[in-house]
Description:
globular, 88 residues, five-stranded mixed sheet
Amino acid sequence: MPETQDWPEWWHWELELTPHVFKRIEDRDFNEVDLRQMLEHALGYHRDVVDGRWVIEARHDRQRWEIILEPDDVDQLLVVVTAYPMIK
């Protein structure tokens, strides 16, 4: 995972992809490998407007992306809610 900033404990938890993100994968022309690479080379993160969720800043195909994650403390899973390219 990226080392340019301090990442939270949950950053190294196993990923769980939601049915919603699988639909977005189809709609937005990326795949699970692309998603994992975006996370591996993430640029930063910050809290989302939804409590308990985080926005991961990433790049894919020379475009900025945001990936919404929700750490599951009980099962220690990092749930991927959605991913989308930033509008230029």
